[in-house]
Amino acid sequence: MKARTRTNLWFQLALVLTLGTLMAWGPAVPVQAQDVVVKVGNIIPLSGPSASVGLQGKQAREMAVEEINAAGGIQSLGGAKLVMLYADSESKPEKGVAEAERLINTEKVHVLTGCWNSAVTYPVTAVAERYGIPFIVPVSVADKITEQGFKNVFRIAAKDSWWTRDQFAFLKDLQEEFGTKVSKLAFVYENGDWGKGFAEQWKKLAAEQGYEVVLDEPYPSTATDLSPVVQKIRRARPDVLMLVSNAADAILLTNTLAEYKVNLKAVITSGGGHADPSFLKAAGENARYLFDIVEWETDINKPGAQEANAKYKAKYGQNLTGEAVDAYLAMYVLADALERAGSLDPAKIREALAATNYRSGPGMIVGYDAVEFDETGQNEHASLVMVQINDLGQGLERITVWPKGARRAGYTPVFPMPAR
Amino acid sequence: MLFLIEDAINGILMGSIYGLTALGLTVIFGVLKVINFAHGSLLMVSMYAAYWTVALTGWHPYLALVIVAPAMFVFGYYLQDIVIKPIFKAEQDVREPITVIIVTTGVWYILDNLTLLLFGPQYRTLQDNPLRGRMLEIGQMLISVPKLWGFAAAVLTASGLYLFFQKTRLGRAVRATSLDRQAASLMGINQYKVYNIAFGIGTATAGIAAVTLVPFYNVFPTVGVLFDIKGFIIVVLGGLGSIGGALLGGIIIGLIESVGPQFMTATWTEAIVYGLFLLVLFVKPSGLFGVRYDW
Fold first, then answer.
1. Which UniProt key words apply to this protein (chain B) (predicted)?
2. Which of B10, B123, B260 is opposite residue A248, by nearest beta carbon?
């Protein structure tokens, strides 16, 4: 018995020594060009309710990584290739956390990206932080994701509260560009969390920027008749109407506003129902001149955007979406950071990411002009895109108008709206 | 003051259309003593029928009545005959058969999901029909023309139904069955045939309601649910089984919905409607215009 224990002990000691030596050697061994790969763990919803956006994210990542690898990989790592590992979160937070642990411990990934669903991304940030693995979040809008004081989370896209910020920024730019003053605003929104959340921020922004709010009206999304609400808008005589609507009510409001010939300088909407694919068809001509806020639009005027979209469409049969574009950009931001890090040490990669200042290159097909992370890990240049619905002879379409750097070439927004 | 009149007119017009959507519910309840949970879905099916009729033929929307109302009558007739009648027979001795309610819920889910499968979740509106977006301008006041037509349709349908039940032999047979099905059977009335007819009539009125809605409202697979909830409130408010009650109940709700928002936010009018609903249940459970006996 005793002898047996002793052998075991010797064996263990030997093992520890060997491993220790190996570990000590690890960094000392020069990086071998062909052997090195960068393992990128991606946690996205590939099944379940968000599977379709998850798939878009996967396809966009794949397209970007193929391009990066084909262009010679990461030069500073001897042409290292990016290797993508996908894990399905099923939109479930607990699944996302388990997959993050697995990717870090078993697959030994160098970087994590994901998770689209804010509810999944949020707990995964804590896992990434614990292991010190850099975590790139292309899109997950919840503000709190970058507001935990974590060092390893980097978000590319704009956060929730920036939607309203950008609507007001757009309104300000519009007034300057056209020299038309807007002083009275009306806020009309569905009475759920989403609408009320927007309205709260609108009220704050309006007070800060000196607008007069002439109407602040929540309405039930299930309303079968919105003419009472439209009457209130008509009688309040606002310059600009701001809306948050789901699909059925967006159509009903747009049509009813036209029927009652409500004259406004502009209508600014918040995606959702106004971005629903059937909205343009169902509201028709009445939707003309509306301004809507989105993450991205296919006509965006950035070098390479049209080409990337065409390539994506040929490959996957769909246009790029806001989700896809941010995922695509995320891969280029990662490649840029790896290039500067010249190491696979997560801490080095983190430092390089924190120092990112990505302004041009194949990934810059988004509405904003740069990726630069502030101390919370939020891309401080991220912004949304404003589109105007108009008919330029080929039916109603969504035309990018803001930020100005991304505006469709040759298009001048229509502001104020012509009287009905 | 002018604003109030304008809102009241809109409330009465829209309310009468709500009443029209609830008419079928009240007819079916009056006779079968069954809350038809599939009523909203039948309205939705009718809206699709009206939408496609007008979209494909390019007719005036109200011409679709010629197709939609008879088609929905037949649909309702056979729905009752094939799906609901067997359950009725199994529960012969019960005055208000609960299982039938469950069956109508099943029909609701099947119809909604079948529509989703066939037509997708898209929202559709009739473009370019002669009623769409038309407004009557009286001085400063604007009155929606399609709603005016809807009001006329509602009043005509309700009076037509009333006359039918009061004056015709078949109408009297329906009323007799609703009062006492056993006695009616003993008098030689085919109880189940009367049920089929009542269900058919209820569904056909949903068809008429659909035709009035389609010129200005969206069509989508779950549109029935929005009108369903309102329909129940209207029917209880007006008195279950009462035709005039349904119309007046609808107008009351329409008025609250239309005038209310001028004094408070639109969300609150919903609370008032439900509050009134509870109050009526407490104070006068048979409804504002309901009679103790069913007709």
1. Amino-acid transport, Cell membrane, Membrane, Transmembrane, Transmembrane helix, Transport
2. B123
Query: What is the topology classification, in CATH, of domain A162-294+384-406?
Result: Rossmann fold (3.40.50)
Do A229 and B3 make contact, defined as CB atoms within 8 angstroms?
A: no
The pLDDT confidence band at residue B292, using thresholds 50, 70 and 90, is: low
Q: What are phi and psi of B128, to 5 degrees?
A: 50, 40
Phi and psi based region of residue A410 (left: phi greater than 0; alpha: psi -120 to 50; beta: remaining): left
Comparing CB atoms, the residue among A232, A252, A255 nearest residue B261 is A232
What are residue A86's DSSP bridge partners?
A: A42
Is residue B243 assigned to a domain? Answer: no
Residue B128 lies in a domain: yes
Among A189, A193, A224, most B C-beta atoms within 10 A, so best to mutate, is A224
Residue B265 lies in a domain: no
pLDDT in tens, A148-163: 999 999 999 998 899 9
Please give the Cα distance from A122 to B213 (Å, whole number): 45
Is the per-residue pLDDT at A235 higher than 60? yes
| Min Cα–Cα distance to chain A from B74, Å | 28
* DSSP letter for each residue of chain B: -HHHHHHHHHHHHHHHHHHHHHHHHHHHHHHH----TTHHHHHHHHHHHHHHHHHHH---GGGGHHHHHHHHHHHHHHIIIIIIHHHHHHTTT-SS-HHHHHHHHHHHHHHHHHHHHHH-S--B---S-TTTT-EEEETTEEEEHHHHHHHHHHHHHHHHHHHHHHHSHHHHHHHHHHH-HHHHHHTT--HHHHHHHHHHHHHHHHHHHHHHHTTTS-B-TTHHHHHHHHHHHHHHHH-TT-HHHHHHHHHHHHHHHHHGGGTS-HHHHHHHHHHHHHHHHHH-TT-SS--SS--
Please state the domain count of chain B.
Answer: 1
B218 CB neighbours in chain A (<8 A) are 248, 251-252, 282
SS3 A195: helix
**CA B243 – CA B30 distance, rounded (Å):** 9
What ipTM does the predicted assembly reach?
Answer: 0.87
Domain assignment of residue B36, given as a range:
2-224
For chain A positions 261-290, those within 8 Å of chain B (CB to CB) are: 261, 276-279, 281-284, 286
Instruction: Establish if B252 belongs to a structural domain.
Output: no
Which residue is closest to B128 within chain A, CA to CA?
A284
**A259–B7 C-beta distance less than 8 A:** no
Closest-approach residue (CA) in chain B for A192:
B267
Element (H, E) at A110: none
> Which CATH architecture fits A37-158+302-354?
3-Layer(aba) Sandwich (3.40)
- For chain A, domain boundaries: 37-158+302-354, 162-294+384-406
CB spacing of B123 vs A223 below 8 angstroms = no
From B31, B23, B65, select the one nearest B196 (Cα to Cα). Answer: B31
| Interface touch B144/A286, C-beta < 8 Å | no
Q: Which of A231, A259, A276 sits opposite B133 (nearest CB)?
A: A259
- A191 closest CB neighbour out of B124, B217, B267: B267
Distances (CA, A) of A138 to A49, A118, A156, B166, B275: 19, 11, 5, 69, 47
The residue of chain B with its CA nearest to that of A247 is: B123
Q: A277-334, pLDDT tens digit by residue?
A: 788 888 888 999 999 999 888 888 888 899 999 999 999 988 888 889 999 999 999 9
pLDDT digits 0-9 by tens, B41-86 = 999 999 999 999 999 998 899 999 999 999 999 999 999 999 988 8
